[in-house]
Amino acid sequence: GEDVEQSLFLSVREGDSSVINCTYTDSSSTYLYWYKQEPGAGLQLLTYIFSNMDMKQDQRLTVLLNKKDKHLSLRIADTQTGDSAIYFCAEMPDSWGKLQFGAGTQVVVTP
Amino acid sequence: NAGVTQTPKFQVLKTGQSMTLQCAQDMNHNSMYWYRQDPGMGLRLIYYSASEGTTDKGEVPNGYNVSRLNKREFSLRLESAAPSQTSVYFCASSAGNNQPQHFGDGTRLSIL
């Protein structure tokens, strides 16, 4: 089973903010990642955060990291219909570059 | 600016047939990876190659073999396909350890 846990589904109205949550297990993870997957497509790297940071902002995306609770979140401001996709949280628990993925959160944006 | 290219995009096999999935990257990355994606399970690592000339098993290597043909190419082979290997297969590459991985568009493989 996954060591990275995410809720499976999120419904949000267009224009609202979305918050996708993730918990991970390995406190030694150096980087934590968010990927986006649209239907029939591969995974697109959205953003990532280094473990010594608490927050990273990139345009409409804000990543918050709580190392004490091993909790990662992705906030999407002003959610648009094009944001409808599956979002994967991933940690890199060792130095070999192997990613451990969560099962993904399906985000559905309604008008 | 192709990034990571996977071929074929779709394939249907019969049980027992063999198949090689191809992956090439044009970003001069050192590390390459093969994952499989199954519903509700995220992505699981099959094999990886930290650098040219090396390959290592990931989480679910059974039934698969890989070849790092050169720095650009990393292939995944199913010697005797089984229905449990029906999945979407993704190849990824990265500049090295702790660097972000970039994914191809996937190969959708069905085994009957």
Number of strands of chain A: 11
Main beta-sheet annotation of chain B: 7 strands, mixed
User: End-to-end span of chain A in angstroms?
Assistant: 35 Å
Summarize the biggest pleated sheet of chain A: 6 strands, mixed
Q: What is the assembly state of the chains in this entry? A: heterodimer
Indicate the proportion of strand residues of chain A.
over 45%
- Overall average residue pLDDT of chain A: 90
Task: Tell me the number of helical segments of chain A per DSSP (H or I, 4 or more residues long).
Answer: 0
The rounded Rg of chain A comes to 13 Å
Shape of chain B: globular
Determine the fraction of residues in helical runs of chain B and give it as a percent range.
Answer: under 10%
- DSSP strand count of chain B: 11
Secondary-structure element sequence of chain B?
A: EEEEEEEEEEE
The stretches of 5 or more residues of chain B where confidence is low (pLDDT under 50) are none
Report low-confidence residues of chain A grouped into runs of 5 or more: none
What value does the Rg of chain B take, in angstroms?
13 Å
Helical residue percent band of chain A: under 10%
Q: Provide the succession of SSEs of chain A.
A: EEEEEEEEEEE
